[in-house]
Automatic annotation (TrEMBL):
UniProt similarity note: Belongs to the LysR transcriptional regulatory family.
Coiled-coil stretches noted in the UniProt entry, renumbered to this chain: none
KW DNA-binding (keyword) present: yes
Every HTH lysR-type domain range: 9-66
Keyword terms: DNA-binding, Transcription, Transcription regulation
Record-given protein name: LysR family transcriptional regulator
Transcription found in the keyword field: yes
InterPro entries the UniProt entry points to: LysR-type_TF, LysR_HTH_N, LysR_subst-bd, WH-like_DNA-bd_sf, WH_DNA-bd_sf, YidZ_PBP2
Length: 330
């Protein structure tokens, strides 16, 4: 026999919980749910009476989850995902009729190399889907997914969180870019010239060294890094009129070479290959909507211009593979 409390549960309250938990803002949660801010506040009051304690508190302009809310969140989010799956399983699933918002976690490399083709593909097959991106790297992908800030992410190093599922997408290798008229580089980039130049480093954390420096140290060498930036897209303007070098992904270097007066050089030593993955919350694995959207990302990455694929990697130079190599500091 059901209790009065069990009978009175409104499942819409859990949608409010999910929205406030992910957005940390009552107004934004209301916009997502087509509710007014007072209506969202009333829903939180009802959740308070349901669980006999507050689930969110306001601090520094945000609605933060309490310890109880953090405990409840995985259960509620998984339950909503299962309900969505059950509903879609009993209906005709037609991607062309989807009208949902979908947020992809990506850094500027992913946005430049993958996003144009992905947006075109989804727009053609499901024109009512709204796709957006959020700044994301391998460092914070798991946190953003667990807090439903993003639906999935494309990253180059897998998180250890058991609640995160993953699918391999493609491999990427590295090259060096310089100004076209770099005075120290003639026909090809030698190791001596590489070490003699000043370097710009791409580092999400602002670190002064990265995997290149680790590799050079193994060889008994050291380079001079004069600046670190957190975005690849900042690099071309820094080097086109200066005698600097930057080591970055081959596909992105090709794009830069089409737009800027730069040259692409092979690395003068054995390089790493990075395997990119699509990651998402495991609770969403059986959701038809989530599965369809992931399939579009996988298809887009399979159609990338040749450099490497997740299954076959053909590099111009020998590759030094790292088990969980990350597209991090270069």
């Amino acid at each position: 026999m059901k209790t009065t409390r069990q009978k009175s549960i409104d499942l819409n309250l859990f949608k409010v919980f999910s929205a406030v938990y992910s957005l940390k803002n009552l107004t934004h949660a209301g916009d997502k749910l087509a509710m007014t801010q007072p209506a969202v506040s009333r829903a939180l009051d009802r959740l308070y009476h349901l669980f006999n304690e507050r689930l969110f508190y306001r601090t520094e302009g945000e609605m933060r989850p309490t310890r109880t809310a953090e405990i409840l969140a995985p259960l509620i989010l998984e339950g909503l995902a299962l309900l969505e799956t059950a509903t879609l399983t009993t209906s005709d699933f037609n991607p062309a009729e989807l009208a949902v918002q979908f947020k992809l976690g990506a850094n500027d490399y992913v946005s430049a190399v993958i996003l144009p083709q992905l947006v075109a593909l989804i727009s053609r097959r499901a024109p009512s889907i709204f796709l957006s991106t959020a700044a994301c790297t391998y460092l914070d992908a798991a946190h953003l997914i667990e807090h439903t800030v993003i639906d999935c992410a494309i990253i180059s190093s897998l998180p250890t969180d058991e609640q995160i599922a993953a699918h391999p997408l493609f491999r990427e290798d590295y090259v060096v870019i310089s100004a076209r008229d770099h005075v120290l580089i003639r026909e090809r980039l030698t190791l001596d010239a590489y070490l003699a130049c000043d370097h710009v480093l791409v580092s999400y954390t602002g670190s002064k060294d990265g995997w290149v420096d680790e590799r050079l140290a193994e060889m008994g060498h050291q380079r001079r890094v004069i600046a670190a930036v957190h975005m690849f897209l900042a690099v071309p303007q820094m080097i086109i009129n200066q005698p600097y070098l930057c080591t970055l992904p081959r596909r992105l270097a090709r794009q830069f070479a089409q737009a800027y007066a730069i040259r692409i050089h092979e690395l003068p030593f054995e390089s790493q290959s990075h395997l990119f993955h699509l990651v998402w919350p495991r609770r969403q694995s059986k959701s038809p909507i989530s599965a369809w959207l992931r399939s579009q990302i996988i298809e887009t990455c399979q159609d990338l211009s040749p450099s490497q694929s997740a299954e076959a990697c053909e590099l111009r130079r020998p590759v030094h593979l790292l088990p969980t190599a990350a597209l991090r500091s270069t």
